[in-house]
Design brief:
Largest sheet: 3 strands, mixed
Helix content: under 10%
Radius of gyration: 39 Å
Pfam families: EGF_CA, EMI
GO molecular function: calcium ion binding; signaling receptor binding
Number of helices: 2
Order of helices and strands: EHEEEEEEEEHEE
Strand content: 35-45%
Keywords: Calcium, Coiled coil, Disulfide bond, EGF-like domain, Signal
Distance between the termini: 120 Å
Shape: rod-shaped
Length: 176
């Protein structure tokens, strides 16, 4: 009969890590997030193992006897490890997937009419548009923010000037 002094029990766990979170450096717009992961840890374990030994005519006759010996085996157990990973804070992201910083603001809806996302859900609008998404045309004629001598006609993204009946335009904004 064979004797085994060491036995190995192997349990394999796969741990998947989000590689992009580990590349982000600490700093502005970076939020630490607590994460629990598991690691497989080997551990020696002693146990009492029975061995059957034939007597071969000694004190126990022609039968066999059982001898108990201490043996060691390696067991693997799963250990939960808590660590902090870094991710971009809500409203921010990377310019490129492997960037180390979170400098690109995120607008849930697209900024319109040439507006640009300048902060989380904040659109910076060009001069003639307003609204959360730059979706509203500024009426320069109503606000008095125009240079027309007589009549102001609002257009999308701007305005045009015209003259009263009997007058004619001399240039873009004046009448005679």
């Amino acid at each position: 009969m064979q004797r085994f002094q060491n036995e190995t029990v192997l349990i394999v766990f796969m741990i998947c890590l989000d590689v992009t979170t580990s590349l982000i450096k600490p700093g502005r717009r970076v939020c630490p997030i607590s994460r629990a992961s598991s690691q497989v840890v080997p551990s020696p374990q002693t146990y009492i193992r029975p061995f059957i030994i034939p007597c071969n005519g000694d004190k126990c006759g022609n039968s066999s006897r059982v001898v108990y010996k201490t043996a060691v085996r390696t067991v693997f157990y799963r250990q939960v490890v808590h660590d902090a990973v870094r991710k971009c804070c809500p409203g921010w992201t990377n310019f490129e997937p492997n960037d180390e910083l979170c400098m690109k603001p995120v607008c849930k809806s697209e900024c319109l009419n040439g507006g640009s996302c300048r902060g989380p859900d904040y659109c910076a609008c060009p001069q003639n548009f307003t609204g959360p998404l730059c979706e509203l045309d500024v009426n320069e004629c109503d606000t008095g923010n125009h240079k027309c001598q007589q009549l102001c006609n609002n257009t999308i993204g701007g305005y045009s000037c015209s003259c009263y009946d009997g007058f004619r335009p001399t240039n873009d904004r004046e009448c005679e």
